[in-house]
Write a structure and sequence with these properties.
By secondary structure, this protein is an alpha+beta fold. The chain is built from 19 helices and 21 strands. It has helices at 2-29, 31-36, 41-46, 89-92, 103-107, 109-112, 122-126, 143-155, 186-189, 194-205, 218-221, 231-241, 278-284, 287-297, 299-308, 342-349, 359-370, 406-418, 488-507, and strands at residues 55-56, 62-68, 78-81, 95-96, 100-101, 136-139, 163-168, 175-181, 250-253, 255-256, 266-267, 274-276, 312-313, 333-334, 374-376, 381-385, 391-394, 399-402, 440-449, 455-465, 473-482. The protein has a 6-stranded mixed sheet with strand order 3-2-1-6-16-17, with no helix packed on it. The protein has a 5-stranded antiparallel sheet with strand order 8-7-21-20-19, with helices on both faces. The protein has a two-stranded antiparallel sheet with strand order 4-5. Strand 20 (455-465) and strand 21 (473-482) form a beta hairpin.
């Protein structure tokens, strides 16, 4: 009998031990997973209390907010509203019951959703924890520039109006405007009615007549041959990495033939003759001259300079561009070539062949030249505040890349000024901007094969102002798939001018 009692005691002790182990497992090891499990009744009930913090522009304009649902047709307590409709759709993204989040809503979801708040005093620390609430996110976006950018795209007298405008503060990296056309209205995708969400989401995923889908912002999720805007990078390679070529001069000619081109010439646009040093060739955008200069720069140096500006090589994902606080940003690509591939290198040096640039990258190139060769990390978040207005987090401007020395950037910036200040005959942007604005720009006209039909152009302009070492605004504009007669100056130039005009009017500068 005593032996049986001892065995029974051992079994009971083991049972108690197992219970204790399971309690420890549940209370500590699995506590987090169980607390956040969708099968947890508290979580299941909490998802209907979908109040989120607001997203604000730099001046306090409300871009997204949650409002009480006054309808018996839904079990959700709040509905997400975007008061400006499609104006900021590509930036804010959406908050959808069915599709989840995108854009800033995704990037800062941990702050925008209801979450535990940090104690504000000793009493809350020890006894009364503050209630769980969402935070608000304030962006760097300037509503005046954002509206001007989208309006300029949508009203431009172009063959096609799809395109993008990206505006940065070159000294901080702050994104002042980021407009893509087509854009989308997040209100439908954020409806508490799932059927409405599904319909709107499907429609916004369908490419328009110009082959671009509203839900994939052109500014960060599309890339194009940069055309002659890439000559800024080739020029920088000379001043920054191969100064022995600063005085390089191309003889006056309308074309050049490279040994490995199979006899196919690299012609100047329109067949006109061009040549001279960079001081003349960049303003006139001399294709054969810059192609020949690129060959002299060489594959290794050209590749190194492209990487220093943030380009990926051979499709390898760039470690730099995703620094912006948005999801799904694609890299820009420069094609690594064989050392003796002169014809292809010449094409790459003028922004053709397999070069691909996002509008964001175009703005970063301009910003790097404007900021003495230093490219600041692009960012949208300015600060995060709690429900009481206390600052939770602020963004600290951070250098991302050193693309060039200050001297090299200044030299290239001077060349870009000559593109627009009417001092060089036949400069591509002559007459677009008042000289008093003191702008620095580079045009780009990339010849591309249309999906159906004749060859077309992707038309670019990048630049900054004022070009006196105190630039506060850098810009890139691309309007792809224009007619073959389109040019960066003719198609993208007026859009840049409208945004610069809005900036000058807002800041009290000359207009």
């Amino acid at each position: 009998m005593g032996r049986r009692i001892r065995w029974l005691g051992v079994v009971l002790v083991l049972c108690f031990a197992l219970v204790i182990v399971q309690l420890v497992n549940i209370q500590f090891r699995q506590a987090g997973a169980l607390a956040n499990s969708p099968n947890n009744p508290r979580i299941a009930a909490k998802k209907f209390d979908n109040n989120r913090g607001s997203i604000l522009a730099s001046d306090g304009t409300v871009l997204a907010k949650s409002v009480k649902v006054n309808s018996s047709s839904t079990t959700y307590n709040y509905e997400r509203e975007y008061p400006n409709g499609p104006l900021y759709g590509g930036i804010t993204g959406y908050d959808s019951i069915y599709f989840g989040t995108s854009g800033i809503e995704y990037q800062y979801n941990q702050y925008l959703q209801i979450h535990a708040q940090a104690p504000q005093n000793f009493s809350q620390l020890l006894f009364n924890k503050p209630p769980s609430e969402p935070d608000n996110v304030t962006l760097t976006i300037d509503p005046i520039l954002q509206a001007a950018a989208l309006r300029a795209l949508q009203t431009a007298p172009l063959t096609n109006r799809d395109g993008a405008v990206v505006v940065l503060n070159p000294t901080t990296g702050a994104v002042l405007a980021m407009a893509s056309n087509p854009t989308f209205d997040p209100n439908g995708i954020s409806s508490p009615d799932v059927a409405t969400e599904q319909t709107d989401h499907f429609e916004d995923l369908v490419p328009d007549s110009e082959k671009f889908a509203p839900l994939q912002p052109i500014a960060t999720e599309s890339s194009f041959p940069p055309g002659s805007t890439f000559k800024v990078i080739t020029s920088t390679a000379v001043y920054n990495l191969k100064p022995s070529l600063i005085s390089y001069s191309f003889p006056l000619a309308s074309s050049v033939i490279f040994p490995d081109s199979g006899g196919i010439p690299l012609d100047n646009d329109g067949g006109s003759k061009c040549g001279g040093t960079m001081a003349v060739m960049l303003p006139q955008s001399c294709d054969p001259g810059y192609g020949a200069l690129g060959v002299q720069v060489g594959v290794a140096t050209e590749t190194k300079q492209a990487e220093d500006f943030g380009y990926a090589v051979d499709g390898t994902k760039s470690p730099y561009v995703p620094g912006i606080d948005l999801p799904d940003v694609i890299p820009s690509v420069f094609s690594a070539l064989q050392p003796n591939a002169q014809a292809f290198l010449a094409q790459s040096a003028i922004g053709q062949y397999n070069d691909r640039s996002t509008p964001l990258e175009g703005a970063l190139v301009a910003a790097g030249i404007a900021n003495g060769g230093v490219i600041m990390t692009p960012h949208l978040m300015e600060k995060i505040t709690d429900s009481q207005g206390a600052v939770v987090k602020t963004y600290k401007p951070t250098p991302m890349l050193t693309a060039a020395t200050p001297a090299a950037a200044a030299a290239v910036g001077k060349l870009m000024v000559s593109v627009a200040n009417n001092t060089v005959p036949d400069a591509t942007a002559n007459g677009i901007f008042p000289v008093s604005w003191h702008v620095a720009v580079k045009t780009g006209t990339a010849q591309v094969q249309a999906p159906v039909g004749p060859e077309q152009t992707d038309d670019w302009m990048i630049g900054f102002m004022p070009a006196d070492g105190t630039a506060q605004i850098a810009i890139a504009v691309v309007v792809p798939d224009q007619s073959f007669t389109g040019t960066g100056a003719g198609e993208a130039g007026p859009i840049v001018k409208q945004v610069f005009q809005a900036y000058l009017t807002e800041t009290g500068g000359q207009g």
